[in-house]
């Protein structure tokens, strides 16, 4: 310890009331104003000139903190620098950086606002944000976007998850997350907040450091009802009241995605033409999709009450679309009821897991294959891409009228009625057309 410094004690500083200045040594002084307020001052001599600078109010800066700050300032003086000018320069730099820098979490919000019009649905945008908030923001959210490196991206993608890493255990999620981080940093670069290469870029960058997604990702099928269980499950579903039960019934009849049904509006439905036209912005493939409605689907829609002020076919109690979780919960309740009755429940035959709403599409696809329906027609019913880009350019028909018969037979099967006629003939007709 340097002789002559640290002369004061906390008790002295707290008790002293007299106006004036007390020296702690080493250029540190406690100043007391005529109003009794106390503040710290540091005095130094450089190049024959004595100057002073404030270190803060006593009620904010303790004696220990004032001494630590003074030690740093004395070091600057010993280097021949003026701490007052150094402080001015630091503040000026901070002010400039404040206008030309952005935290990653703030860049996420700004980038997301710009991309809102590109999302095919509100759910897509919400998923985009949730993945960022869950996996990226906790790790790099408070970093200056300009300072993020490839190693920081790897910390996000290789964060611990279950008994491995996010990239290993949730490869598809992690791969999407990487692309979203790349988009945010690309926006930050164009907006002037960073420069140089994008550290989240895959080709020639992360590709060399991470295993290829296709090598580590495990394709998981959604648990689906078996063909044998479907009619019994459908009969149980029809016994239930409520809008969510009717929405799930409509999903089964149309083999549609949950989001497509939950956000369906009455202006998309033509009951006279027995057709549901889903606009492309709500479709995964981003193109309009027509669904021929069976007699069962039409009867279901006609029986639905309409909520004043809500455009939705299956509105939640407050008028908006209800969450996807509601449908999943309904299927879980149906499964639990079966278990309580001593039965096996509604299980996927391959995995033994309880069936989920999306699995109904798999049940439909297996049924069409078993019944001999044309593959392309079945895929079109599911709104999947059929054939190559060139083939799709020439194949303009969506086979909607031929699909109408298939969906009528499917609805009959859901009710436990065998399809009328030899369905194999439909395939032969399709081949000859």
Automatic annotation (TrEMBL):
Domain Tyr recombinase, first and last residues per copy: 220-407
InterPro entries given in the database record: CB, DNA_brk_join_enz, Integrase-like_cat_sf, Integrase_catalytic, Integrase_DNA-bd_sf, Integrase_DNA_bind_dom, Integrase_recombinase_N, Phage_int_M
Matches recorded under SUPFAM superfamilies: DNA breaking-rejoining enzymes
Keyword DNA-binding listed: yes
Start and end residues of each Core-binding (CB) domain: 102-189
Taxonomy, superkingdom: Bacteria
UniProt keyword list: DNA integration, DNA recombination, DNA-binding
Keyword Magnesium: no
Pfam families reported for this sequence: Arm-DNA-bind_3, Phage_int_M, Phage_integrase
Xref: PROSITE patterns: CB, TYR_RECOMBINASE
CDD domains per record: INT_P4_C (cd00801)
Family in the record: Belongs to the 'phage' integrase family.
Name this protein carries in UniProt: Integrase
